[in-house]
Amino acid sequence: MTNKKLIIFCAYRDWAIEIFNNVRSGTKGIDFKIFTSPGEFDAEAAKLNPDLVFFVGWSWIIPENVVSNLKCICLHPSPLPKYRGGSPIQHQIINGEEKSAVTLFLMDQFVDKGPIIWQEEFPLDGELYDIFCRIVEQGSKGIMETIGKYLKTGKIEGTSQDMTRATYYKRRTPEESEIKISDFQEYTAKQLYDKIRALQSPYPNAFIVCKDGRKLIITKARIEE
Q1: Is 113 exposed, middle or buried (0-12, 13-18, 19+ CB in 10 A)?
Q2: 185 and 135 housed in the same domain
Q3: Does 132 share its domain with 182?
Q4: What's the pTM?
Q5: Shortest CA distance to 203 belongs to which of 137, 135, 129?
Q6: Nearest 5 degrees, angle CA 30-CA 33-CA 39?
Q7: DSSP 73-134
Q8: Number of domains in the chain
Q9: Is residue 224 a part of any domain in this protein?
C-alpha cells in the first residue's frame, strides 16, 4: 500500500486561498496543508517532506535549499516569460494589455524563470474583481490538472521559457498609485481608466492629491464619448 500524498499550499491572499479551497475539495485521496506566512512555512516544510508545494500569490523569496530539494510550483498571473516579477496584473492592465494568462511553472533559484508546466489565457476586461474570478477559475483548473498528471506519472515536467521574449517589472509602490493633474493632459481616458481599475482593492487605490494636501481616492471610473 502506498503512502498518502501530501501537498502544501503557500497562500495568504483571498483569491489564492479560494484556489486552495477549490483544489482541496476537488481532489480526493490527498492530504493538504496550507501555510499563510513565510516564517511558518520555513519552520515546518522540510519536516513534512511534501510531494508537491504550490506557491499561489506568494510575495516572498523562497530559500534556495527549498526549491532545490522540493518540487515547488508557482502560479504566476501573466503569460510568462512576459511580465516576470512583482505586480504582474497591475502592470498588464496599466500597459493596456487585453489578455493575460495563468501560468504554472517549476521553480528554480531565479525569479519566474523555471520551466512552464501549464498556461492558459484569460481576458483582462472588466473590474479587478472580475479578473480575479478568472484567475481563481483558471488557477484551480491548472493546479488540479497538474496534480492529476503527477499522480499518474510521478513526474513534473515543463517547457523551458524563451528568454528572448522575457520582460521584468518591479513590484509597484503605493506612491505610484497617484494620478497627477498633468496626467489628464498626457494620457487618454482609456489609459487613466485602466490605471484606476488596475488599482482597485486590495491594492493601494488610485488617488489625486488636492489643494489642501489630502488624497482624493478613486476606486471606480467609466468612459463616455
Answers
A1: middle
A2: no
A3: no
A4: 0.93
A5: 129
A6: 155
A7: EEEESS-TTTTEES-HHHHHHHTT-SEEEEEEEE--SSTT-SPEEEEEEEE--S-HHHHHHH
A8: 2
A9: no
Give the separation between CA 192 and CA 94, rounded to whole angstroms: 8
CB 137, CB 127: distance < 8 Å: no
Task: Establish if 206 belongs to a structural domain.
Answer: yes
Tens digits of per-residue pLDDT, 161-195? 999 999 999 999 999 999 999 999 999 999 999 99
H/E stretch holding 152 reads helix 128-153
Nearest to 100 by CA among 65, 59, 135: 135
Q: Is residue 105 part of a domain?
A: yes
95-140 pLDDT, tens digit per residue, is: 999 999 999 999 998 889 999 999 999 999 999 999 999 999 999 9
Cα separation, 100 vs 123, whole angstroms: 6
| 111 shares a domain with 188 | no
CA distance 192 to 182: 12
180 and 98 belong to one structural domain: no
Q: Closest by alpha carbon to 103, among 124, 84, 125, 87?
A: 84
| Structural domain of 180 | 174-218
